[in-house]
Amino acid sequence: MQEMLKVAMPKGRIYKQAFKLFRRAGLPMPEDSGDDSRRLIVTFPEAKMEFILAKPVDVPTYVEYGVADIGVVGKDVLMEENRDVYELLDLGIARCRMSVIAMPDWQQVLNPRVATKYPRVASQYFREKGQQVEVIKLNGSIELAPMIGLADRIVDMVETGQTLRENGLVEYEEIFPITSRLIANRVSYRMKNERIQQLCDALQATLALPEEE
Ligand SMILES: Nc1ncnc2c1ncn2[C@@H]1O[C@H](COP(=O)(O)OP(=O)(O)OP(=O)(O)O)[C@@H](O)[C@H]1O
Ligand SMILES: O=P(O)(O)OC[C@H]1O[C@H](OP(=O)(O)OP(=O)(O)O)[C@H](O)[C@@H]1O
């Protein structure tokens, strides 16, 4: 008999897309993802899966500590959290990019301030460029920082570019592209290898197919 697989799933914009992908991969799950519910643990007995609905940034933590066997998480969070987990598969969903953004009249100054939700990513990026910057951690609406003079530049995500256009900001450089990844706890990956590998193979085969409407 198959054992239960615990999956850390991010609430929010990734959830619906990940759920749809799992269904397309043939997992016996209901059509309704139930994403408007307030339940934090959802069990799918037929699929032998339990979803732990977490804040996106916490997914790698649950997986590293083994309270979830696997998880779905954006590459942005994976880079920032730097947790000890296996990255198994690029799921190709929730596509966007991490970029350096500023006002159009931005000028190079000595020791510029950079605001971001991703201090590790930003620090590493500027360190590799040999530029000394002061990184200021914010938790949302990062685009405000250069508009109101808190920072010279920001490091943030761009998807459609709408937020930038509506606030008169310019994308200067892409740091890396982002998609969601399937990650696994190191011990679970050994102990539940067949199960996890089966899921990976099914997801990979689905990703190779053209997406139906
Ligand atoms: N336009 C986008 N902006 C931000 N993230 C995006 C976008 N498109 C895709 N993503 C991906 O979706 C993930 C989760 O984003 P979401 O906005 O749901 O969560 P969050 O902002 O981290 O969480 P919360 O709103 O609970 O603080 C991101 O980590 C990123 O990988
Ligand atoms: O290029 P776009 O399609 O406009 O998407 C990019 C925006 O989406 C994200 O913000 P989010 O909606 O997560 O809100 P936040 O400011 O709370 O992070 C991100 O931080 C950008 O602000």
Automatic annotation (TrEMBL):
One of its GO terms (biological process) is L-histidine biosynthetic process. Keywords: Amino-acid biosynthesis, ATP-binding, Cytoplasm, Glycosyltransferase, Histidine biosynthesis, Nucleotide-binding, Transferase. GO terms for cellular component: cytoplasm. SUPFAM superfamilies: Periplasmic binding protein-like II. It holds the Pfam family HisG. It catalyses: 1-(5-phospho-beta-D-ribosyl)-ATP + diphosphate = 5-phospho-alpha-D-ribose 1-diphosphate + ATP. Catalyzes the condensation of ATP and 5-phosphoribose 1-diphosphate to form N'-(5'-phosphoribosyl)-ATP (PR-ATP). Has a crucial role in the pathway because the rate of histidine biosynthesis seems to be controlled primarily by regulation of HisG enzymatic activity. Lacks the C-terminal regulatory region which is replaced by HisZ. This is ATP phosphoribosyltransferase.
